[in-house]
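Hello forum,

I keep getting stuck at the same step: I have a sequence, I want structure tokens, and every attempt I make locally crashes halfway through. Rather than fight my setup again tonight, could one of you with a working pipeline run this one for me? It's a single chain of 85 residues.
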Amino acid sequence: MPNPTHPRDQILERIEQVGRAAWKQESGYQRRSLAETTLFRLKVSFGARVRSRNFDNQAVELFLQCAALNRMIQLAKPDSYPVEA
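Reply #2:
Ran it on my machine without issues. Output:
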């Protein structure tokens, strides 16, 4: 009786075939990682709970948290410009 291939083994085999960078691109791994990091930042900055009880108010609260987080990120980014050699 053949042993079914474990999903992790299939992923590792695909990485060997196309390379890690191509696998990350085709699987959407980068987007997932960015989303997880963003939610972690949001929860650390504003707490893991929503304070409003009404759904519409919860949506507004989360929108404002996202806007504040985006503003904080923009303020912390250094200015980048090309350097002539």
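The chain is about 70% helix and 0% strand. If your local run keeps crashing, start a new thread with the error log.
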